[in-house]
């Protein structure tokens, strides 16, 4: 059924779901295929940030400046015309709730690649690799296309252009597997990837995400969703944890590759919620 749902939406889909803290049934559909993370990579960045705060190496109330260097993506501080001064905790909030690329890169540069990689190691993620931050991804686009104006080049993408991009090739960019991402989520929700206060901080931020059109769209209003989206040309993703009123929580990762390059594709967005719901319904029937 899930293959039919993806086909109807015009996408290729990859799914993994598991109940949090339970060594039980899993839902798998391309669960071990390598997939492009896009902004889902911000989840381990958030863990690295929270771990630094919990360890006392970063004062979350300290303020820093987001300058014009980071204005890529157009959302949040990335879309501001002027420099912005914010606290680290507010930058982390913007990074996760609205997928602010500028906030992400400022946080990433503060905690460092090695700290982010350490999160992956602690979670036991052997097939997950993060090749820098958003700035690095956009730099790769410029190199692939031979242009400095990346946002203009991607404003109306064609397949001829997209096929040149390393950012949509899981073998050449930041990538993982659906199973490894739910492994990370399970480690966050069970306080195993960082100190409990750090994991709680990440859970609280992820629960405030503002986008309702993907994973959340598949679940009733009484189901809590804490998640992170990811978007690139032809790529739409979301990974998160859904918690039912009965207290059971499920880590769900849905990654898609679209046959369309339309910037707005409601069917491709909605199928993430439909697939996530099918996966969780199956787990609830068999557990």
From TrEMBL:
One annotated GO molecular function: beta-lactamase activity
SUPFAM superfamilies: beta-lactamase/transpeptidase-like
Gene3D superfamilies registered for this protein in UniProt: DD-peptidase/beta-lactamase superfamily
Stretches assigned to coiled coil: none
Gene Ontology annotations of biological process type: beta-lactam antibiotic catabolic process; response to antibiotic
Name of a matching Pfam family: Beta-lactamase2
Domain Beta-lactamase class A catalytic: 23-256
PANTHER family per record: BETA-LACTAMASE (PTHR35333), BETA-LACTAMASE-TYPE TRANSPEPTIDASE FOLD CONTAINING PROTEIN (PTHR35333:SF3)
Protein name in the entry: Beta-lactamase class A
Organism: Lentzea waywayandensis
Lineage, top ranks: Bacteria, Bacillati, Actinomycetota, Actinomycetes, Pseudonocardiales
């Amino acid at each position: 059924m899930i293959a039919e749902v993806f086909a109807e939406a015009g996408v290729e889909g990859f799914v993994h779901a598991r109940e949090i803290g339970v060594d039980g049934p899993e839902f798998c559909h391309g669960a071990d295929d390598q997939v492009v993370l896009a902004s889902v990579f911000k989840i381990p960045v958030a863990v690295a940030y929270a771990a630094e705060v919990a360890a006392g190496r970063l004062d979350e109330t300290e303020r820093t400046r987001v300058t014009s260097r980071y204005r890529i993506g157009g959302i949040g501080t990335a879309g501001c015309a002027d420099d912005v001064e914010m606290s680290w905790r507010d930058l982390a909030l913007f990074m996760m709730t609205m997928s602010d690329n500028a906030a992400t890169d400022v946080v990433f540069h503060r905690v460092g690649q090695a700290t982010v990689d350490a999160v992956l190691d602690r979670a036991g993620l052997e097939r997950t690799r993060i090749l820098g931050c958003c700035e690095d991804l956009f730099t790769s686009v410029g190199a692939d296309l031979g242009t400095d104006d990346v946002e203009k080049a991607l404003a109306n993408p064609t397949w001829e252009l997209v096929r040149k991009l390393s950012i949509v090739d899981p073998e050449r960019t930041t990538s993982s597997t659906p199973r490894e991402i739910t492994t990370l989520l399970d480690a966050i929700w069970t306080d195993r990837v960082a100190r409990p206060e750090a994991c709680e901080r990440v859970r609280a931020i992820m629960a405030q995400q503002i986008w309702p059109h993907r994973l959340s769209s598949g679940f009733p209003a009484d189901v809590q969703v804490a998640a992170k989206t990811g978007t690139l040309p032809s790529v739409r993703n979301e990974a998160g944890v859904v918690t039912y009123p009965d207290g059971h929580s499920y880590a769900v990762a849905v990654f898609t590759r679209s046959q369309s390059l339309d910037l707005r594709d409601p069917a491709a967005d909605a199928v993430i919620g439909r697939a996530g719901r099918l996966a969780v319904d199956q787990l609830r029937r068999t557990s």
